[in-house]
């Protein structure tokens, strides 16, 4: 059985994570004949969809409630979706994971980052991705790209600027895991940069 791999995708709003994930999914299946699971946070399964509706569509969600909803979704997601897939030897491509909580609730909202790291370690049973692709983009450009803005997308520009700075800070702290991609480039160029790195890892 081929070894499993857990890959996450992070970045500010409108960075193009979904487009990149789908492109890599197809190439992994076509060129490496791998079984690939594409998933996301929040929102996987019936439990996740209910939480996603509250988090992204309800206007009145306090910061603490927001945090615990994300953590509840993540704990359920890891145990019921991600871990079983990895145990089968699959490649998991996940749109957002722990880094999003550290950045949005910590760097952008001002919660204690050490506390957030500990809570996420508990929620995920310390499951970490091998690779995190960070799609970096100027928030002013990313927000223009968005057609339908959810509750987080409607936050002020300064909030999204803090998000971007937070992601770059996290990447600086863990350079072996993070691969920073210039998401202001056309999508094919971003895909090719990510694919070259991923294909090399799979062949090594």
Short description:
The chain is of the alpha/beta class and 204 residues long. The chain has eight helices and five strands. Strands 2-3-1-4-5 form a five-stranded parallel sheet, with helices on both faces.
Q: Which key terms come to mind for this protein?
A:
about 55% helix; 5 strands; alpha/beta; Rossmann fold; single chain; about 200 residues
Topology summary:
Layout (H helix, E strand, L loop, with lengths): L4 E6 L6 H15 L4 E5 L4 H13 L5 H25 L3 E5 L2 H11 L4 H12 L6 E6 L2 H7 L11 H17 L4 E5 L4 H17 L1
Parallel strand pairs: 1-3, 1-4, 2-3, 4-5
Helix pairs in contact: 1-8, 2-3, 3-5, 4-5, 4-7
Report on this structure.
- The protein has 204 residues and is an alpha/beta fold.
- Helices cover 57% and strands 13% of the residues.
- The chain has eight helices and five strands; from the N terminus they run βαβααβααβααβα.
- The chain has helices spanning 17-31, 45-57, 63-87, 98-108, 113-124, 139-145, 157-173, 187-203, and strands spanning 5-10, 36-40, 91-95, 131-136, 178-182.
- A five-stranded parallel sheet has the order 2-3-1-4-5, sandwiched between helices.
Count of the domains: 1
- Note the total helix count: 8
Q: How would you characterize the largest beta sheet? A: 5 strands, parallel
The CATH homology group name: P-loop containing nucleotide triphosphate hydrolases
Helix % is 55-70%
Given as residue ranges, the uncertain stretches (5+ residues, pLDDT < 50) are none
Examine the coordinates and then state which fold CATH places here, giving the name of the CATH topology.
Rossmann fold
Question: What fraction of the residues are assigned to beta strands by DSSP?
Answer: 5-15%
The secondary structure category is: alpha/beta
- SSE sequence, one letter per element: EHEHHEHHEHHEH
């Amino acid at each position: 059985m081929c070894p499993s791999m857990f890959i996450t995708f992070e970045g500010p709003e409108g960075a193009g994570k979904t487009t990149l994930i789908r492109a890599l999914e197809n190439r992994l299946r076509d060129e490496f004949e791998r079984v690939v699971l594409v998933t996301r946070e929040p929102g996987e399964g019936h439990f996740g969809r209910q939480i996603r509706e509250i988090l992204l569509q309800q206007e009145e969600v306090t910061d603490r409630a927001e945090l615990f909803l994300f953590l509840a979704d993540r704990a359920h997601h890891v145990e019921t979706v991600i871990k079983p897939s990895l145990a089968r030897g699959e490649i998991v491509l996940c749109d957002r994971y722990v880094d999003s909580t550290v950045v949005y609730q910590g760097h952008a909202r001002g919660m204690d980052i050490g506390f957030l790291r500990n809570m996420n370690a508990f929620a995920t049973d310390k499951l970490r991705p091998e690779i995190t692709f960070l799609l970096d983009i100027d928030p002013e450009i990313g927000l223009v790209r968005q057609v339908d803005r959810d509750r987080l997308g409607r936050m002020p520009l300064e909030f999204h600027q803090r998000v971007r700075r937070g992601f770059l800070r996290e990447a600086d702290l863990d350079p072996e895991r993070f691969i920073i991609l210039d998401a202001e480039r056309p999508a094919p160029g971003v895909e090719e940069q990510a694919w070259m790195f991923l294909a090399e890892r799979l062949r090594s």
